[in-house]
Specification:
The chain has 9 helices and 10 strands. By secondary structure, the chain is of the alpha/beta class. It has an 8-stranded mixed beta sheet, sandwiched between helices. Strands 5-6 form a two-stranded antiparallel ribbon.
Amino acid sequence: MAALELRDYSNGNQPTWCPGCGDYSVLKAIQKGLFELKIAPENAVLVSGIGCSGKISHYFGGYGIHSTHGRALPVAQGIAASRPDVTVIAAGGDGDGYGIGIGHLIHAARRNLPVTYLVMDNGVYGNTKGQTSPTSPLGYRSSTSPAGNADLPIQPLQLAWSAGASFIAQGFSGNINHLVELVKKAILHPGFALINVFSPCVVFNKTNGYDFYRNAVTYREQPAASAAEYFQMLADDPFPLGVLWKSEREPAKQARFATVGSKTTDSMAPDSRVHDSQDGLLEYLRTSLV
């Protein structure tokens, strides 16, 4: 077998994103991450949603599936459940993943199947000319919010934790080397992994661009050690990058669902670490609200 080359992870199709789009970096991070982990293209599948980011599967050298709006995660979970030998990656935008697809994020996090999910968060619906999205900041002006966005933005990192996500990270398209390392760690994690990526839309979002994030982000060397630390970090720092949360909660397995009519097995017993995290969150809320 010939040695793998980075070009093997591209199918030769030229991306048609706008020049400067952050999605180029996300595609490259996926390709380079798999290459550095020596996972052959034929052993990986990339499932995408709808929108600008949905085209990412069109350019991938492994298997690619372009699913329907907000449904990348159900497809990815089906593959992960039936083909544990395949590396499964899902990708989409903030409108796709945190809008119509947000229910699937919650259930993917709690099931904890081995799927790496990258959300390209640009704060707008770029494919349809820049309307306000679930992560648009309060007061953001667009064609659908000319007087300013009146809705509080979704907080995906907090939401994913509350649903039981065992790996939560955040990256930035302006630092591809850092993003590659996050992708590698997410792929190696034995459960569901969310990577929220600040991926600027240089055409329609003139507020949160590359310069904004370069001045705003901070880098975290280690994930939070407790729920209290995690939520305090997010309260103090709105733009942290790195692996922010990681736990060793057991992934969903076929054996856990083969116990209908029988006694609960040890693998189905409540995980004390989950309760420890919940206790930590309650302690954080008690101390921060007094």
